[in-house]
Structures are given as C-alpha cells and as structure tokens.
Design goal:
two-stranded antiparallel ribbon, 64% helix, mainly alpha, single chain
Length: 362
C-alpha cells in the first residue's frame, strides 16, 4: 500500500528535505545531505574499486535506504522476488546513468538539493534531466520494453539486504582493506548512527510513497498527473527553508560546493541520466527501493551503478569543481549513443504505456 494521496507524498518529500538539511548540519557536504550516486561512488571507493582518495567512505545512508525499504516492503506485503527482464541491459543502463550523473556531479535528488541551496548551475542539469525524460517518454510511447520479469526463489531477494548488512559490518569494523578519505567530500560525513537512521527513514518513506523524480516528470508528461512530482517540490521547498535557517543558502553560479559551471556538460550529463533512468523505470533512489522489494533486475542495475562509479574515477570520467574532463565528455557522448540504441532496439509496435514502475509492451 502506498502513502495515500498527495498530502502523503508531500509529507514524505518534506521529511526527506528536512533530513537532507539535518545531515549537512551534522557533517555531510553542503548540498549533499543525500545524494544516491555520490554515495554509491564513495562506497565504491571505500571498497577499493577506485582509488580517488577524496571520495572513499561506506555511506550509511545507502545502507539505511535499502534496509528501510526492505523492512517497509516486508511489513506492507510488497516484497516479491522477481527478475529476468534484460538484466545485462539494465546493468549497462545503470552504468551510464552514473556516468551522466557524475558529469553533472549529482543524482536527481542532489540536483533538487543544489537548487534548494541556490546553486544555479543545477538549472542546466534540471533542463537536461527533463529533456532526457521527454526523449525516454517518446521511446515508451513507441513501445519500448525490456520484457517481463519472472518469479524467483524468495532467498534470492534476501541477498541485497544481506549485502547492506555486510557493508555495515565493514564500516563499523573498519578493517585495513577498507579505505576512508582523510580529506575532500569523502571525509565529510554525519555520525554513523545519524546517517543510518536517516537512511532508514528515507528508505521506508520512499518505499511506501513510490517517491521517484523520474516517475514524477514522466507521469506529468504521460498522464498529466502531478502526484509523484509534488514530493520533489516538497523536498525543494523544505530544503530551501532549511538552508536559509542554517546559513547554507548561496545564490549564484560560481563557487558552489562540489559543482562546476560548464552548463553544456551539466545539461548533457543529466540528459544521459534522465534518459537512462526512464528506460530503467526509475531514478537511482527508486532502483535501490525496488531492489529491496525483491526486484533482482534493480539489484543488477545497482551493481551497474557501482561499477560505473568506479570506472568513472579510475579513468578520469567524473567531473570536478574545475569542470568536465575530456574523457568524461567522450564517455557522455558514447553513453547517449548506447542508451539511445538500447531504446531503439527494444521498441515494440504493440507497446502501451503503463503508469507506475514502467513496464511497456506485452
């Protein structure tokens, strides 16, 4: 059962916005109270999958979101183990969604939080993200489908939450083979328990409400339904007020934390992230929630995002405050071509659009 009505999802958005502001107050980087892609990147670094020393920390927020969504799905009867819907294609899409997001330096949620902090460079990200969703909607209307899922053994669904518990153990035990940043964004974090509890709340609330910015914009375009997008508007408003109260609001283009002013590549990066997310049926946050509900294809997508984050930092694809890299620009263009090709080859003439977690076609 979903959180009922628009009031329910607005309340969820308000909670997420308030928690994002609180996490910054407790130590997370400014305008990065919650950033799914950034935190996946940091976790990849902590596991040694990349060696960028400034972004290495197992983020408890990701662990909490997954476990919170799992607990909520079990309690609400939504836990259903399924998979087999083009898993490797989903891995590739997850990979390129992260490449695009790290070109922009943030996921859709952080894009909203950057806007709430006065970062005007995020406007170009929002425009690109919306454009990507519109292109994705065009594919949906042409019958895009990654085919049906199949029921799987229930034990398969428990592996993703078990993975999160294992990461939590590694974070607490801090063995020598786990890396922790001594400087940079990875060194800035709220206390472990605060981050974990915040993640649990966000995960549970997102599972009950189906919170997803991709779904919000998609539903607004396809069905003229503002239900899901109202949750992100609530995040924007509450985070904006919170930033004013805490003194973290800074209006302008330059000098914004963990951001760059190269508007074209902010646009193209989020164009790639938006298009890939529509074809996947949800944003990075939604993929974690779906994985926790037993959707193994979304777990594969999560692994694609983890590998994409590692790849981006191992090969100099991720942007920095200085701007986009040449390799990153090339990877973004390649990503747009690959993701568009996936859209074309998976179109079916008999397809129909279905509201909710998108499964198009028969």
């Amino acid at each position: 059962m979903c959180v009922g009505g628009k009031r329910g999802i607005v309340l969820v958005g308000a909670i997420v916005g308030a928690l994002a502001v609180a996490l910054v107050a407790f130590g997370n980087p400014v305008n990065m109270g919650i950033c799914i892609v950034c935190f996946i990147r940091d976790t990849a670094g902590a596991l040694g999958l990349h060696r960028a020393g400034v972004v290495q920390y197992i983020r408890p927020e990701i662990i909490g979101i997954a476990l919170g969504a799992w607990i909520a799905s079990m309690a609400g009867g939504d836990f259903r183990v399924r998979g087999g819907s083009a898993p490797f294609t989903r891995f590739i899409l997850g990979f390129f969604v992260v490449i695009g997001a790290l070109m922009f330096l943030g996921c859709p949620l952080r894009m909203v939080l950057r806007l709430a902090g006065g970062d005007l460079t995020a406007v170009f990200g929002l425009l690109g993200f919306t454009a990507g969703i519109l292109v994705g909607v065009a594919f949906l209307n042409k019958g895009f489908t990654l085919q049906r899922t199949y029921n799987l053994p229930k034990t398969e669904g428990f592996m993703f939450p078990a993975m999160q518990v294992a990461l939590l153990v590694l974070l607490v035990a801090a063995p020598a083979f786990i890396f922790f940043s001594a400087e940079g964004p990875g060194s800035l974090h709220a206390p472990l328990l605060v981050s974990l509890v915040a993640g649990l709340i966000v995960g549970g609330a997102a599972q009950r409400s189906r919170l997803c910015m991709v779904g919000g914009i998609r539903d607004l375009v396809l069905f003229k339904d503002s239900h899901l997008i109202s949750g992100f508007l609530a995040i924007l408003v509450v985070a904006f007020v919170g930033n004013l109260i805490t003194g973290n609001f800074k209006l302008g283009f330059s000098g914004q934390p963990v951001a760059h002013t190269d508007w074209l590549w902010n646009f193209l990066g989020m164009l790639l992230a938006g298009l890939g997310s529509v074809l996947l049926g949800g944003c990075p946050l939604r993929q974690i929630v779906l994985g926790a509900e037993g959707n193994i294809d979304s777990v594969i997508t999560f692994l694609g995002m983890l590998v994409g984050a590692a790849f981006a930092h191992n090969f100099g694809l991720a942007s920095s405050g200085a701007g986009a890299t040449a390799h990153g620009k090339m990877a973004t263009i390649i990503g747009l071509v690959v993701v568009a090709a996936i859209g074309f080859v998976n179109m079916e003439r008999s397809g129909v659009s279905v509201k909710g977690d998108v499964t198009v076609g028969s």
